[in-house]
Amino acid sequence: WYQRRVHGVNKSITRPNPTNAGGAREISMPQASVTRATAGFGSASTASENANKVEKLIASVQADLRSLEIGLQDPSMLQPHIIENCKRHQHKIMLVLSTDIHEKYTFQLIGYYDQLGEYLEIYNAIYQADQHQPNSPMRPLSPKPAAANSGRPVEREAPVQRPVDQDGDEIDNGELLRLRDELQRLRTDRKSVEDQCSKLKQQINDIRVKISMTGDGGVGEQKKEQLVTLARKTVTKSRSILVQAKRELAHMRRTLDQTKADSSKFANSWQSEIHELSSVCDKAAKAEAKGFETLKKLYLTEMQMRKKLFAKIQEFKGNTRIYCRARPLAPEERAGGEDAVAFNSSTDITIKEPSGPRLFEVDGAFKPSDKCKSVFEDAAPIVQCAVDGYNVVMFAYGATGTGKTYTLLGNDRDPGLVHLSLEKIYEPSEERLESEAVTIGLSVYEIVGESINDLIDPNKRNLQVQTSEQLGSYVDGITNVEFRNKSEVISGLMRALGNRDPNEQHQSKTALIVQFLIHSDNIQAGSRTTGKLYFVDLPGSERQDKMCTQLGVVMDKIQGNTKADQIPFRSSKLTHLLQDTLIGSGKQLFYVCISPSKLAVAESANSLSFAFKVRGVILGK
Hints:
Blueprint: H1 2-11, E1 14-16, E2 24-26, H2 31-37, H3 47-73, H4 80-96, H5 103-130, H6 173-213, H7 217-317, E3 320-326, E4 341-343, E5 348-353, E6 356-361, E7 364-366, H8 372-376, H9 380-387, E8 392-398, H10 404-409, H11 417-425, H12 430-435, E9 436-448, E10 451-454, E11 465-468, E12 472-475, E13 481-483, H13 486-497, H14 504-508, E14 510-522, E15 527-537, H15 546-559, H16 573-577, H17 579-582, E16 587-594, H18 601-615
Parallel strand pairs: 3-7, 3-16, 8-15, 8-16
Antiparallel strand pairs: 1-2, 4-5, 5-6, 9-10, 9-13, 9-14, 11-12, 14-15
Helix pairs in contact: 3-4, 3-5, 4-5, 6-7, 9-11
């Protein structure tokens, strides 16, 4: 379409002229005007210079078009030079289009060319209709005579489809509407001429009556002849106008018939192509859906395999792992001389007891200078296992004042294991963002003796542990609040910890438990996995608490390959609650916190001995 439009503009613009009985109106321009019109456009100017000139031309065309449009509505406001400017703009656009300009300007200029031509034709038609009125403000567009026209363009409605003429060229919407306006105008002219003929006949009859009544025969005959001659001229002229109108009407009817036929053919062709395209799209959609289902099955298989392999790798490293962390010395402890703890390597630690040094081998040994982030590095993959649907527990064990609570909770400058685990769960992962949505259900409670007290809702006290096939072990009636981001979880945790008794003696004999119930929804597969992640701050080891004692007994039974139904999980609320986490595919991390002071040598050795008992658990049992 674009090439045909530009080609048609470059040739010249020739359109049917209703004043010339199907003839053509050809636009020409003197050579001097051509030279002036294209001045400044060409290869000698840069692209930016040509663009600036085209912008100026467009601005000038827009201004004159607005003035011409106002003048067509109110001829008294039309200035004579506006018509000449529009004619020059039309020729200049035709010549500029033949130069090398940007495509975006080409479409604009073609549109303005057509609009100028349409407005000038409307002006010429109005002028022809008013040329016999002595007080008409309209001036002719061209010197050619035009038929009388008493009508003006009527309101029209844009056609839906673009037809083509008999030569195969497209007829634009403006041309088709112009033909319809001309047809309406000619019908109005014909009715006006018929009314005029009727009036003339009535005048002739009146004159005949007057002549018959007058006595001056010579003068009457002379007036009669004059009136008859004037009437004959009027009738002859009216007949000429009618003949011309009939010719124009017949031409327009033929054009409209051809346009209707072409439009119908065009619509039928489009319907056939749309039907074929719809069929192709349906087939492609079915093939794509089938392929998507296949990919979905492969994806689910791969995801399940990945989780199993990842859990297997962690199992090879040990489902039960022991870490030792020494806190920094207090100022009053430094006066005692050198530390009672020696770090031989990242996995060996020596306690300098009075009877002699004692070596312990652990999965990770952390010096007083190590931050919580270093302590968490080896635990990060275990947290991922909880997201994948496995049960995980992290114990903080040791004497009161050795940094158990600090290891789990930390502070603003050195976040603890709880905060670092949340960052791991909600870390931005491309794979997870596309396929998974993680929701955490938070529960915070403490075990005082054998009583479980809810810290989110302090009114819930002395709760019981229950077991079900679907949920495993759980605290019946405990408050569980779901969150979708890290900041909400941290805020809920801090509010719950605010309900705990701040007395140090109370905290040293109770177990604080922070429980995350992690729901991982696979958006593509429409499936959900649920894993449990516990953080347990055990009572001080110096108290020989029943809770810790029973935990040691249970772990010893597991170490001895005792059957699950013979292990005394129900001997304490803690082991009953963690039953489905201590056996099977559950993961346990023990963080033994000690003091490097010589005053705490015995307590440090006892804490590591307890951990050594746990360390002997067979992997995967």
